[in-house]
Amino acid sequence: MTDAGGSTRPNGEAPERHTPGTPCWVSLMVHRLDPIQEFYGALFGWEFRPGPGQLGPYVSALREGYPVAGIGVLPPDRHLPIAWTPYFASDDVNATAAAVRSCGGTVGVGPLDAGGAGRLAIGSDPGGAVFGIWQPAAHTGRAVTGAPGTPAWYELTTYESTHVAKFYETVFGHDEERTVSADHDHVTLHLAGRPVAAVHGLGHALPRDRGPHWTTFFAVVAADEAVSRVERLGGRLLEPPHDGDQGRVAVVADPEGARFAVVEVAG
User: Fold this and answer.
1) Taking a C-beta distance cutoff of 8 angstroms, is the pair 8, 23 a contact?
2) Which of 164, 177, 227, 249 is 20 to 30 A from residue 102's alpha carbon, by CA?
3) Which domain holds residue 203?
4) Last residue of a domain, one of 105, 136, 167
5) Which residues form the VOC domain (predicted)?
6) Tell me, what DSSP letter sits at residue 186?
7) pLDDT for position 138
8) Residues 6+ apart with CB under 8 A from 128
9) 82, 29 in Cβ contact below 8 A?
10) DSSP for 193-247?
């Protein structure tokens, strides 16, 4: 669960820019901001800082002073699923958005400026899974990876991995490592020799009510304890703790229904 850029700087220096194609940020748009801030603050120890203002009511979540995620408010006229959206780093969001379209994806939002923080677009791959593109300016993206309370991994669940993985390879420069198995459709996406995300193909077993979607894994010290805390705070357990490819993991939902995973790491 390592990535290809944006390592922690304990001495307080600004983090390096993320290698293009690296998942560099996650963002959640909700109906009511204050209760969701309370939920994630209690669950992950996050503190919050307002902005950028160009995104409407929006806050950056901080873990020990480092930005790790963003939460904003959905416009009242938009009836969109409540979901964590991963953003991939880009040096030129306009060019990346054009590549998304030329490779069979769609761009639903942007490209647009987020003040002095950077420039973004939100699109979907050919299967319909939603993701973001982030071109940094003042805000380079997530500054910590894999520590408790921070994003640690990203997985795309879709119908089949072959064509969808090729989309991400072409748009973001990923390389693929395919699991050779007759009953396991799985690809790991790499940048600079390091794994950055995974693609799982479920075929007809993919739930119709979910469709293709990205899941963000947040690191915790103990998955079972994190699940208990989620439930005490008003969230729900969707998949009980089990040992997976990334370690002991569970899938949960926050009080507004946004799905995410918690994965156990060393504290």
Assistant:
1) no
2) 177
3) 151-264
4) 136
5) 22-136, 150-265
6) E
7) 59
8) 211, 212
9) yes
10) TEEEEEEEE-GGGS-TTT-SEEEEEEEES-HHHHHHHHHHTT-EEEEEEEEETTE
* Cβ count within 10 A of residue 260: 22
Distance from first CA to last CA of the chain, Å, rounded?
15
Task: Enumerate the β-bridge partners of residue 200.
Answer: 157, 186
How many structural domains is the chain composed of?
2
Question: Which residues are CB-neighbours of 233 under 8 A, at least 6 positions away?
Answer: 38, 39, 42, 43, 255
Q: Give residues with Cβ within 8 angstroms of 250, minimum separation 6.
A: 223, 224, 226, 227, 237, 239, 240, 241, 242, 261, 262
Sign of CA dihedral 230, 27, 212, 257: positive
Task: Please give the helix or strand (H or E) that residue 171 lies within, else none.
Answer: helix 161-172
Contacts with 56 (C-beta within 8 Å, 6 or more apart), sequence order: 72, 73, 75
Q: How many helices (H) does the chain have, and how many strands (E)? A: 4, 16
d(CA 120, CA 136): 9
Q: Which two tokens stand for residue 87?
A: 């953003």
Cis peptide, bond prior to residue 52, ω within 30 of zero: yes
In a domain? residue 141: no
Q: Which residues pair with 175 in a beta bridge?
A: 190
Of 75, 107, 136, the one marking the end of a domain is: 136
CB 71 within 8 Å of CB 30: yes
